[in-house]
Predict the structure.
Amino acid sequence: MSEVLDHLTRWMGDLEEEKVLQMASLYAGSGNPDVMPAITALNQGMQIVGERFDQCEYFVGDLIAAGAIFSEALEILRPFIPRAEPESCHDQTILLCTVESDYHDIGKNIVKYVMQSEGLSVLDLGVNVPPEQIVKTARDKKIRIVALSAVLTSSVDSMRATIEAFRKAGLRDQVRILIGGSCTSEKIASHIGADAWGNLPGDSARICTQWARELRGKN
Ligand code: B12
């Protein structure tokens, strides 16, 4: 199987769409219950894409192609992410989105699938979501847990603005805010006033499950 994972990484980096999809199907069909190593292998391929973009070997069109290939492969692997039965204590819905000015959604989508696989209910607002829309949705739907994703360094400002918008609306004490994405860190989370930082999708599920348990019945 490690050979399949190596191929997934290499071909993702080389933008070999057909080969990536073939390998993803092979992996999914192998009966291996854990598809996370395949997703990690694709992610490593994305690192190669990013490096080649930095070195001007790839251009924006290649990033678009990379996004499409990863998303297609994810659709093949997604049914094999085990789905837990929703726990009765999970009466919380997690509001998830990519913040304003950022259109990257692959990481966010993986986070969503993993959260759902843990039995959490997720309301996904998509990408490029302004602070006001996040706050309004949280208020209207009585949401207590918000997970923000960002990949562009400049989007940290949007995360900060979102947290500030909750404060201005008088709702900051009502919501717990988790941030994640490759431009974030624990330090950034504490600097902008988030409640927690998650590195891996599994972290987001673990933290949100814990919060959902603590907030049970408190909507
Ligand atoms: C694909 C891609 C695109 C695609 C995105 C398609 C899509 N549907 O998402 C498109 C073409 C749209 C794109 C556009 C741009 N991109 Co781009 N893109 C990438 C690329 C190659 C991969 C990103 C990705 O999907 N990675 C795979 C996912 C799975 O990883 P992830 O997002 O980090 O998510 C993981 C974790 O971070 C975590 N996570 C993510 N979110 C959350 C949330 C929570 C709550 C938690 C707990 C965890 C978590 O879990 C995920 C799984 O492990 C990266 C390079 C790279 N290696 O990151 C550049 C990259 C992010 N892009 C970059 C740039 C510069 C751009 C553009 C500005 C290019 C341009 N000149 O137009 C535009 C900006 C558009 C915009 N306003 O958003 C730079 C960003 C530099 C920076 N730090 O600011 C990068 C790093 C490339 C580079 N090396 O320069 N891009």
Notes: Residues 43, 46-47, 49-50, 53-54, 60, 63-64, 66-67, 70, 101-108, 110-111, 147, 149, 151-153, 178-183, 198, 200-201, 203-204 surround cobalamin (CB under 6 Å). Residues 36-54 form the longest helix (19 residues). The two ends are 45 Å apart (CA to CA).
